[in-house]
């Protein structure tokens, strides 16, 4: 197996960000939404907030949200195994102001990586860093990667169920990741380099 450069998102890919966001947002709003209510990638819209309101709340409570998130089963173990064979870049859309809490969280759960990037434009970052495959939950990134004919592992969430494309491989559990990467690796290895 050739060494791949794998981009890995954190929120709702490596860890359950939905529960942490709902806990905080429910406390702030007085509502009691549950994970079963979530049908929008942008959870704050379910509270009737605009982007400015969300930013104010998120910037005030983001440290607690990110420090209290819990990893999905087998995510840390799988990433540790991948790290020993491939290049791992954590690609998160979190603001850089949450770098310290993010790095501490990764360290606390023993999740290794070669690089970490805080960006709102993962497509450009992946292109610049020559990432072979991105593992993420965002439907908009899945569509962008599909249009570029690049492999994308879409971590299944209720808000991304309509995404369908041959370059998008839906992942339901971290136990599936290594097998899917082996398939992608064999496909990429068999392709001729572009002259």
UniProtKB/TrEMBL annotation:
UniProt entry keywords in alphabetical sequence: Hydrolase
Domain of life per record: Bacteria
Main enzyme class: hydrolase
Enzyme Commission code: 3.1.3.-
The family this protein is said to belong to: Belongs to the 5'(3')-deoxyribonucleotidase family.
Protein name per the record: Nucleotidase
Species whose genome carries this gene: Paenibacillus oenotherae
């Amino acid at each position: 197996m050739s060494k791949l450069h794998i981009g890995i998102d954190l929120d709702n890919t490596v860890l359950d960000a939905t529960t942490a966001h709902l806990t905080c947002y429910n406390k702030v709003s007085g509502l009691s939404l549950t994970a079963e209510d979530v049908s929008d990638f942008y959870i704050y819209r379910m509270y009737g907030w605009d982007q400015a309101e969300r930013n104010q709340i998120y910037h005030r409570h983001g440290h607690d949200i990110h420090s209290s998130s819990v990893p999905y089963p087998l995510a840390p173990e799988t990433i540790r195994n991948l790290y020993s064979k491939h290049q791992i870049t954590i690609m998160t859309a979190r603001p850089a102001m949450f770098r310290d809490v993010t790095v501490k969280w990764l360290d606390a759960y023993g999740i290794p990586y070669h690089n970490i990037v805080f960006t709102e434009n993962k497509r450009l970052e992946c292109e610049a860093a020559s990432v072979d495959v991105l593992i993420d939950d965002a439907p908009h990134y899945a569509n962008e990667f599909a249009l570029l004919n690049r492999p994308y592992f879409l971590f299944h969430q209720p808000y991304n169920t309509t995404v369908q494309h041959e370059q998008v491989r839906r992942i339901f559990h971290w136990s599936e990741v290594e097998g899917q990467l082996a398939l992608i690796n064999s496909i990429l290895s068999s392709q001729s380099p572009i002259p």
